[in-house]
Design goal:
Order of helices and strands: HHH
Largest sheet: none
Structural class: mainly alpha
Distance between the termini: 82 Å
Number of helices: 3
């Protein structure tokens, strides 16, 4: 599995320092990438969408009691 981006190279170097992978594995993956100029990220994140402003919600209007119901009480 060759390294495909600069970010991956940094991550695998970090794993090497932590001792989670062997130096041989890191060298093999790094060597397979070759001397090519690697992109910073393999799949860059898209632009963030602007957040929609939330309008203040009004309290629902209360219904008035009808005139007939008011007289009965």
């Amino acid at each position: 599995m060759p390294i495909k981006s600069k970010a991956q190279r940094r991550k695998f170097a970090e794993l090497l320092v932590k001792g989670e992978i062997t130096p041989e594995v890191f060298e093999r993956w790094n060597r397979e990438a070759g001397g090519a100029e690697l992109p910073e990220r393999l799949h860059p994140k898209g632009a963030k969408k602007p957040r929609r402003k939330v309008k203040a919600r009004r309290a629902p209007k209360r219904k008035r009691a009808s005139a007939k119901k008011a007289r009965r009480s």
